[in-house]
């Protein structure tokens, strides 16, 4: 709930005192008698100068309206009235949210926190990019401020326990993870494109044997992809999941465990980052899995997902309407050399 702060009352210059002409004190008889050699005059009060109003001083109403004005960018300008209402309520709880997320810190309710490159100050939360970040949690929870608050608290706690910043600094072996994830190009709306290449490394033990290392790499790759977003004009990405080279033998217990944990992390702590997701080169034995889980997904999520066949021509037919040819690698039907 946005606080309304009264504006300062405009100050005006002090009024000049009224100046009275000096009057000669006489007796009643002297006043009545005509004075020789002089024409009688009537003396009146002479007003002083008009007070000078303060220039450019806002009225209380103008100051209040200015204080209530929301910082805007191209993304916030698309918010609906219902979204703004939910956002203001959600934003008013940030002080409590940070205290609950970090109970061990005495100043948690007043300290700033940087999330995906955007600094959130719970005491001064009015910021267009902050509004975009908070709206992600609201939209993920159907504009329910209380549920969005719980999700944000959970995310802040998870990021601290998982040590996301340390994962981003970790050096992962290039021969194991170097070919599994790439970012390349942008779609026609400016969304960056992230590629997950599941069959790029056939040594499954090296990739998934250490589940926690795989998750740290996967989270770091997600964070690197998010760093390409400015939260002013773009706040989502396109993901292309390439299953070329994946076989039945690729479905080991370790890979399934890692995939399940990664999915849980992204669903719980990375809300509304997906603009569109394409599954390409999907083997037939995996296609039916998508159709099994489709009824469990929301209509909004399903609308963002497409299962595409194999081969550059077939893939290009699906991707080129959204991605310029010079931004799409040749292996996917575009003209770019890619990776």
The global form is globular
**Rounded mean pLDDT score:** 84
| Uncertain regions spanning at least 5 consecutive residues | 1-46, 51-55, 60-65
Give the helix/strand class.
Answer: alpha/beta
Biggest pleated sheet: 5 strands, mixed
Using the CA coordinates, give the radius of gyration: 34 Å
Helix content: 25-40%
Q: Looking across the biggest beta sheet, what order are the strands in?
A: 3-4-5-6-7
Number of strands: 7
Number of helices: 14
Please indicate the percent range of residues in DSSP E strands (runs of 2 or more): 5-15%
N to C succession of SSEs: HHHHEEHHHHEEHHEHEHHEH
Ends distance: 48 Å
Question: Tags for this entry?
Answer:
5-stranded mixed β-sheet, two-stranded antiparallel ribbon, alpha/beta
Please characterize this protein's 3D structure.
By secondary structure, this protein is an alpha/beta fold. It is built from 14 helices and seven strands. It has helices at residues 28-32, 60-68, 81-91, 94-101, 128-140, 145-162, 164-169, 174-177, 204-208, 211-226, 253-269, 284-293, 299-303, 312-319, and strands spanning 113-115, 118-120, 181-186, 192-197, 237-242, 274-280, 305-307. A five-stranded mixed β-sheet has the order 3-4-5-6-7. Strands 1-2 form a two-stranded antiparallel sheet. Helix 3 (81-91) crosses helix 5 (128-140) and helix 3 (81-91) crosses helix 6 (145-162). The protein is globular. The chain starts with 27 loop residues before the first helix and ends in a 20-residue tail after the last helix.
């Amino acid at each position: 709930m946005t606080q309304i702060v009264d504006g300062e009352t405009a100050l005006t210059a002090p009024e000049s005192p009224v100046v009275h002409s000096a009057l000669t004190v006489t007796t009643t008889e002297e006043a009545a008698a005509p004075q020789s050699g002089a024409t009688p005059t009537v003396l009146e009060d002479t007003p002083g100068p008009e007070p000078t109003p303060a220039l450019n001083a806002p009225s209380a109403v103008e100051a209040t309206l200015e204080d209530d004005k929301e910082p805007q960018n191209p993304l916030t300008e698309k918010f609906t009235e219902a979204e703004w209402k939910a956002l203001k309520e959600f934003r008013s709880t940030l002080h409590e949210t940070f205290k609950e997320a970090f109970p061990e810190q005495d100043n948690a309710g007043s300290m700033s926190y940087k999330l995906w490159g955007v600094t959130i100050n719970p005491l001064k939360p009015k910021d267009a990019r902050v509004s975009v970040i908070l709206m992600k949690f609201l939209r993920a929870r159907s504009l329910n401020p209380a549920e969005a608050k719980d999700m944000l608290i959970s995310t802040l706690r998870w990021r601290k326990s998982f040590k996301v910043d340390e994962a981003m600094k970790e050096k992962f072996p290039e021969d194991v993870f170097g070919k599994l994830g790439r970012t390349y190009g942008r779609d026609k709306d400016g969304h960056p494109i992230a590629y997950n290449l599941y069959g790029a490394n056939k040594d499954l033990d090296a990739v998934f044997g250490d589940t926690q290392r795989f998750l740290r790499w996967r989270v770091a790759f997600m964070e690197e992809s998010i760093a390409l977003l400015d939260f002013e004009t773009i706040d989502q990405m396109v993901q292309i999941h390439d299953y070329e080279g994946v076989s039945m033998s690729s479905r080991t217990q370790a890979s399934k465990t890692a995939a399940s944990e990664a999915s849980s992390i992204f669903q719980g702590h990375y809300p509304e980052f997906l603009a569109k997701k394409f599954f390409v080169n999907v083997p037939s034995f995996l296609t039916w899995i998508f159709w099994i889980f489709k009824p469990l997904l929301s209509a909004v999520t399903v609308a963002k997902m497409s299962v595409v066949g194999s081969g550059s021509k077939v893939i290009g037919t699906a991707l080129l309407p959204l991605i310029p040819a010079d931004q799409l690698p040749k292996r996917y039907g575009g003209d770019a050399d890619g990776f």
